[in-house]
Design brief:
Strands 3, 4, 5, 6, 7, 10, 11 and 12 form an 8-stranded mixed beta sheet that branches. A two-stranded antiparallel ribbon has the order 1-2. The protein has a two-stranded parallel ribbon with strand order 8-9. Helix 1 crosses helix 2, helix 1 crosses helix 4 and helix 5 packs across helix 9. The protein is built from 9 helices and 12 strands. A hairpin with a 4-residue loop joins strand 1 and strand 2. The chain folds into 2 domains: about 80 residues, Winged helix-like DNA-binding domain superfamily/Winged helix DNA-binding domain (Arc Repressor Mutant, subunit A, Orthogonal Bundle), CATH 1.10.10.10; about 200 residues, D-Maltodextrin-Binding Protein, domain 2 (3-Layer(aba) Sandwich). By secondary structure, it is α/β, with parallel strands linked by helices.
Length: about 300
Amino acid sequence: MELRHFRYVIAVAEELNFGRAAERLNMCQPPLSHQIRLLEEELGVKLFERTKRRVEVTEAGLRLVDEARKVLAQVEQAANVASRTSKGELGHLSLAMIWEQKLLVEALRVFANRYPEVHVDLHRLGAREQAQALAEGRLHVGFMIAGPTRDPGLVYETLGWDPLVVGLPERHHLAALERVPLRALADERYIMFQRDINPNIYDDIIAVCRNAGFSLNIFHQVNNIYSSMALVAAGLGVALFPGAVRDVGRRGVVYRQLQGRMPKMESILAYKAGTPVGATRAFLDTVRTISSRKFSLKDSR
């Protein structure tokens, strides 16, 4: 028994005429009659009573028609689910971030409005953890700061280059300045991320300070941006952040631009190599559209 047999039985039962049923099915009447006979033989039951003047559905035929309609409805539902999933309208999306970038928040809002039936998981992970999760298939899309090495199995798209700003306790004397001279940080206790997180940026910051005539007094080390914010807010020191982190609005921390040329951090979007499908493709398209139209990280304030 095949799905086409269900369609044949339903058409004959509804039309009560083999000729009209065959026309409805876009086939000739003899093959339709032959298929119904073969089905009756396979099942060992009579589905239709036939005379020269009329066709009647047997009790067994009526039961089969009811079940056939249910099966075909389930098949149609399954096909619809598969189609909608392929289009990104259904499914599951696992995302990761380092902090709540304005671009990410806006992309999530737009995506949720367009695809309300996609379940989204959002994780806070460092670049290294994101890369591993992406490679293992536990994560679909990651928002991160570019690291020194890139996994060849991942695709990286640049979202922008973000200048560094200095984060200060809100009552810090330098907070009164609109732009802080880099040299003013010479006597401050500095909160620095661990070098293995991003050796390139780490070394660039050290080099810029040396060129300004001083060495950073690194007093605390952290492994994520939020730890830096917490220590700054507690008054334990100052720290440099990507400019876009100002969107987070941590209480007790103020951000000021620095005078002079400072290293920039590359903000990137990462996903597994290959052609993205379903919800992943739809979300990436959403991010790209918003990024090109509304948000430029280099202009973040």
